[in-house]
Amino acid sequence: MAKSKTKSKPKAKPPAKAKSKLAAKSKSKPKSAPKSKRKALPTGMRTVTPHLVCADAAGAIEFYKKAFDAVELVRLPGPDGKIMHACVRIGDSPIMLVDEYPDWGVLGPKALKGSPVTIHLFVDDVDAFAARAVRAGAKVTMPIADMFWGDRYGKLEDPFGHHWSVATHLRDVSPEEMRKAMSMGA
């Protein structure tokens, strides 16, 4: 006679220690969209995008349109009318803007008494570009001149305190040629 196989009941597991909600959350993996469906870089944006704080962002947008031939992409005013987010495109590059919000620590270069940042623009005709910017209200801080590194180059400050270097590339120069020109006081 065959022995009947009876299944024995599994032993009960000891009760699990209670975990805090924080501990449970910290061990869970964050949910994110699958990489194939999510774009890390939105269409039309660049990996590095300047985000300028201006005392008058609306005025800055109008200045950039006149001076730098910017195209306004978006403008989102807050309930008080101040710009909470805006974006323009200069050439092929987006520039984001926001009004100053001192209560949040968001201050532009004029409130900070200057800016250590210079934004560089390559343009087709630096002389015409700088002349248009000056007519629109920019100040020349370094006159346009041919430089030893191969660009015709100069610097501007816009009416909102942001610094811009502008250049037209004239020729390729090797690092060795640059070092030699620098050592000769170029």
Q: How many individual β-strands?
A: 8
Quaternary assembly: single chain
Radius of gyration: 29 Å
Largest sheet: spatial strand order: 1-4-3-2
Unreliably modeled segments: 1-6, 18-26
Quick one: biggest sheet? 4 strands, mixed
Distance between the termini: 106 Å
Secondary structural class: alpha/beta
SSE string, helix = H, strand = E? HEHEEEEHEEEH
Shape assignment: globular
Which CATH class?
A: Alpha Beta
Helix tally equals 4
Supply the number of structural domains. Answer: 1
What's the pLDDT, averaged over the residues? 87
CATH architecture name: Roll
The portion of residues assigned to helices is 10-25%
Strand content: 25-35%
Within CATH, the superfamily carries the name 2,3-Dihydroxybiphenyl 1,2-Dioxygenase, domain 1
Give the SSE layout.
Layout: H1 21-27, E1 51-54, H2 57-68, E2 71-77, E3 83-90, E4 93-99, E5 118-122, H3 126-136, E6 139-146, E7 151-157, E8 163-169, H4 175-183
Parallel strand pairs: 1-4, 5-8
Antiparallel strand pairs: 2-3, 3-4, 6-7, 7-8
Helix pairs in contact: 2-3
Describe the structure.
The chain has 186 residues and is α/β, with parallel strands linked by helices. 21% of the residues lie in helices and 28% in strands. The chain has a four-stranded mixed beta sheet with strand order 1-4-3-2, covered by helices on one side. The protein has a four-stranded mixed beta sheet with strand order 5-8-7-6, with helices on one face. It is globular. The protein starts with 20 loop residues before the first helix and ends with a helix.
